[in-house]
Write a structure and sequence with these properties.
The chain contains 17 helices and 16 strands. By secondary structure, it is α+β, with helices and mostly antiparallel strands. It has a five-stranded antiparallel beta sheet with strand order 11-10-16-15-14. This is Penicillin-binding transpeptidase domain-containing protein. GO terms for molecular function: penicillin binding; peptidoglycan L,D-transpeptidase activity.
Length: 565
């Protein structure tokens, strides 16, 4: 420390002696370098200072702090070194252009935003150990903090606890929350960039979206996209944990951040509400994992998605599981393109052996006279496998999935997604399994809803959540003949096939396909359902839900009944 600094501090301390009559000896010796005297050691005594002594001690401390004489202010506490370090951190990190501190009287319950009878109530055991219980005189003060470049002024109520020292003087019992009632040990206060409150997320009709399955993480994804750019930041006084944990506590906004605009998504509040109910029921109140997605075929807009358990993983987008017989929609399309007609007889044997592996159906009796359309409607595994191995080359079905339905490339939906996979099979066993949605094929509700949407509209439109977002295109469309046959077969499934129960009363202009999938030796099969009705396509899956018509079907039908109008 240079001589000029010493003289300056000594001058301030002289003024403080007159104001409070306290602490001059130690401060004088410290700043003048007088080592000929032995500094007196002051300790807190088990006796409260008088009201006048406490008020004088508080006034002197606040005057020194307000003038920026932090060493003098620290000397007026029972922990000078810690006080000086904390006050210096406030000065360096908050950088007030002016600081006015006005003493008050005894604090009231509403005098500050902190809880408890006094600021010292928040102190750590180590910080408060020097102040015997019941010996503090609590006093309040008002802080006015100004900042350069703005007319915004930060006003807050503070608290001090005054204790009596062994030399008969009063001192501020030091805790971190002397600086601010909310500041505690292990925390820092500083000016940092602050952003506007997250924007409202709206549905396609401009109504706020607030549903259980739209988890905070999902909403945060879109809110982050709409705000948080450095150029949009303001500045504010913020308290943070030194270990990085917890959420920063913004105390005051110095310069206002740029407001974040509301963000409109493609979702429809009416359909979302119904999807939430449908998934909750299908999952037995969230005890089974489940998801549902609704898509607008004419645009690819995602109109609803729901998950069980609500607030958990976004299973609708992130699941990667076998879709079971719902995959037969694409298998049927491949067979139609290969020249098989809906009215062609395709026998449905009870079992079928492929390379030593036996495949069977959900029913035990054979149906030798069934037509292709009936095989799909009743979900005959053996007929689809047998004809597929006969007329399709290895990988034909998987190629069609990619070329016409967009399965394989990563979709840019605006959210994290597990891409659907339909890899080329490695042998006849895998060929057979993949023709009925098993093997190495993995899908999620989003993918299966898109498949039904493609059948309904005749064109693959990649699902999106933000209106006008870029959409990947498929390499080609299905032929008119294939589309006509596929729609008729899916309608038959909805009117008299395995989906008839779920689709009762909503079969006009509709098509559907059920699915039952076995997954990794799971005790109960997964329930799948995909369907369309008008300009609305839906898919649902319920882990361990059993047959597709049992759990996923009724859930999908509830949303389809609402319609897209």
């Amino acid at each position: 420390m240079n001589r000029g600094a010493k003289i300056g501090i000594a001058t301030v301390c002289t003024a403080l002696v007159g104001a409070a009559g306290f602490g001059a000896y130690n401060v004088y010796d410290a700043v003048t370098g007088n080592e000929s005297k032995t500094p007196k050691v002051r300790t807190v005594v088990a006796e409260a200072p008088s009201a006048d002594l406490a008020a004088a001690g508080a006034k002197a401390f606040l005057e020194a702090w307000a003038k920026g004489d932090l060493e003098a202010a620290g000397a007026l506490t029972d922990s000078p070194d810690t006080a000086i370090a904390t006050l210096k951190a406030f000065q360096d990190k908050v950088k007030p252009s002016a600081l006015t501190l006005t003493p008050g009287g005894a604090p009231t319950a509403s005098a500050s935003p902190s809880a408890g009878p006094s600021a010292s109530a928040k102190a750590s055991p180590a910080a408060s150990a020097s102040a015997p219980a019941g010996t503090e005189v609590p006093l309040s003060f008002k802080a006015r903090v100004e900042f350069a470049g703005t007319t915004n002024v930060w006003n807050y109520d503070g608290r001090l606890g005054l204790v009596k020292m062994s030399d008969g003087k009063a001192a501020v019992h030091w805790t971190a929350n002397v600086v601010h009632p909310k500041l505690d040990t292990g925390e820092s206060i500083a000016v940092k960039p602050v952003f506007a409150e997250p924007p409202m997320v709206l549905d396609r009709n401009g109504k706020p979206l607030n549903y259980p399955s739209l988890t905070p993480a999902l909403m945060a994804k879109f809110k982050q996209n709409a705000s948080g750019a450095p150029e949009d930041a303001g500045t504010g006084v913020v308290i943070t944990k030194d270990d990085g944990s917890g959420t920063p506590d913004k105390l005051f906004t110095i310069t206002d951040p740029k407001p974040a605009p509301s963000l409109k998504l493609t979702l429809d509040g009416r359909l979302q509400a119904e999807a939430e109910k449908a998934v909750a029921a299908a999952s037995k109140g969230g005890t089974l994992p489940a998801s549902l997605v609704a898509i607008e075929p004419s645009t690819g807009n995602v109109l609803a998605f729901a998950n069980a358990p609500a607030g958990g993983q976004n299973r609708a987008f992130l699941a990667a599981i076998a879709p079971g017989s719902t995959m037969k929609v694409i298998t049927a399309a491949a067979l139609l393109e290969a020249g098989v007609k809906p009215d062609d007889v395709l026998p449905c044997p009870a079992t079928l052996s492929v390379a030593g592996q036996t495949f069977k159906n959900d029913f035990t009796e054979p149906h030798e006279d069934w037509k292709f359309s009936q095989d799909l409607a009743q979900s005959c595994n053996t007929a689809m496998i047998k004809k597929g191995l006969e007329v399709l080359k290895s990988g034909d079905m998987e190629s069609l999935a990619k070329d016409a339905f967009g399965i394989g490339p990563t979709w840019k939906t605006g959210m994290l997604l597990a891409p659907a996979k339909a890899p080329a099979p490695s042998g006849d066993n895998q060929r057979a399994a993949q023709l009925i949605g098993q093997g190495s094929i993995t899908m999620n509700a989003l993918t299966m809803a898109s498949i039904s949407a493609t059948v309904q509209s005749g064109v693959f439109r990649q699902p999106i959540l933000v209106p006008g977002a870029e959409q990947l295109k498929a390499e080609r469309t299905l032929s008119p003949t294939t589309l006509q046959g596929l729609r008729a077969m899916m309608n038959l499934t909805a009117t008299s096939g395995t989906a008839a129960g779920a689709m009762s009363g909503i079969t006009a202009g509709a098509g559907a396909k059920t699915g039952t999938a076995q997954v990794n030796g799971q005790a109960d099969d997964n329930s799948w359902f995909t369907a369309y009705r008008g300009n609305l396509a839906v898919a649902a899956e319920v882990g361990g839900g059993g047959h597709g018509a049992a759990a996923a079907g009724p859930a999908s039908a509830l949303v389809l009944k609402v319609g897209n109008g």
